[in-house]
Amino acid sequence: MTLPTESLFVPALASLDGLVPHEGLLTPVELEGVARGLAGRPDIWEPLVHDDVEHRCYELVYEDERMDAWILSWMPGQGTGFHDHYISGVGLCVARGCVQEDLMVYGASHQSRALQQGDTRRGGPGYIHRVTHGDGLPAVSVHVYSPRLDWVGQYRLDEDGVMQREVRPGRNELTEQLVADGALQSVLERF
């Protein structure tokens, strides 16, 4: 089977105009800085914002062989579900509104924090979290990955409540639990 090599997304920018500190892969600290720099440029991200109540929207700002940068729009009820970024590091910054970030904790309730406009987060490969809408119509966040986010690990509970990790293309919309609505409600309350 041959996979298409042409991107389904067209970057909004051909360059990040000096926001990237150097050639080569970026560290999580550097990714966080790039995300902060992009969030401080509403002239770049505001044209890419959507207020779609049905689907969380994400627009590619920039990509090259070592990184990509995205603008994500969040409306009430929208979230990613728990996921990791496979081999990619991540830096994110809230550009408008508020998003909720949850970190999975083994044997305990998840850690939760509200990220307000200007707040940033970062993580290396394997960083597991979920992000959901907090406040703002829409809330907007900037996410930058290095290497480019080609794959993610999406965490799901099967019918027996066993955690499964599904490897999925990184350019698909991440969603909450995919099992039948309500089938695992009492189990999902732990997460």
What class do helices, strands and sheet pairing give? mainly beta
Residue share in helices?
Answer: 10-25%
Residue stretches low in confidence (pLDDT < 50, at least 5 long) are 1-7, 178-191
How many strand segments?
Answer: 9
N- to C-terminal separation?
37 Å
How much of the sequence lies in strands comes to 35-45%
- CATH fold topology: Jelly Rolls
Indicate the CATH class.
Answer: Mainly Beta
Please state the second-level CATH architecture.
Answer: Sandwich
> Topology as H/E string?
HHEEEEEEEEEH
Q: What is the residue-mean pLDDT, rounded to a whole number?
A: 87
Largest sheet: 6 strands, antiparallel
The count of helical stretches stands at: 3
CATH homologous superfamily (4th level) name: Jelly Rolls
What does this structure look like?
With 191 residues, this protein is mainly beta. The chain has a single domain, classed as Sandwich (Jelly Rolls), CATH 2.60.120.10. The chain has three helices and nine strands. The protein has helices at 28-39, 42-45, 185-188; strands spanning 57-63, 68-74, 83-84, 89-103, 111-116, 120-123, 130-146, 151-157, 163-169. Strands 1, 2, 4, 5, 6 and 7 form a six-stranded antiparallel beta sheet that branches. Strands 3-8-9 form a three-stranded antiparallel beta sheet, with no helix packed on it. Strand 4 (89-103) and strand 5 form a beta hairpin. The longest helix is centred in the N-terminal third of the chain and has 12 residues, at 28-39.
